[in-house]
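User: Let's play a game. I give you a shape written as tokens, and you guess the letters that built it. Ready? Here's round one.
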């Protein structure tokens, strides 16, 4: 059974920083893509940042230069360092892991961690 456990959310003032962590269990392969998404009230879930098994990264324009993503592939652990947080960053942040097995795509999600940025 695949489980994703996120931690590190909380409330910070504008300009502050948070570091989100996600530990994945139940997947032994390191050939996975991992990422963070977020969903604010009344909005669709959107990509924040992703990191492929080879280390290449992608960021949404609204976090580029403020957030960084990193991973430890052997442990399928991913982190999201969030700096210069803005009230607009307030959302539930979800960890995601994507794996291709037997030619099929499997995507798993964490339960989410709340990030609140006060103005």
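Assistant: Ready! My guess for every position:
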């Amino acid at each position: 059974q695949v489980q994703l456990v996120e931690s590190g959310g909380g409330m910070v003032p504008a300009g502050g920083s948070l570091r989100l962590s996600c530990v994945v269990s139940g997947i032994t392969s390191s050939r996975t893509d991992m990422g963070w998404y977020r969903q604010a009230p009344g909005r669709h879930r959107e990509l924040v940042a992703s990191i492929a098994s080879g280390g290449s990264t992608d960021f949404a324009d609204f976090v580029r230069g403020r957030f960084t993503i990193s991973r430890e592939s052997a442990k399928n652990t991913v982190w999201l360092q969030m700096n210069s947080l803005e009230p607009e960053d307030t959302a539930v942040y979800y960890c995601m892991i994507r794996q291709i097995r037997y030619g099929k795509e499997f995507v798993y999600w964490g339960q989410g961690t709340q990030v609140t940025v006060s103005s």
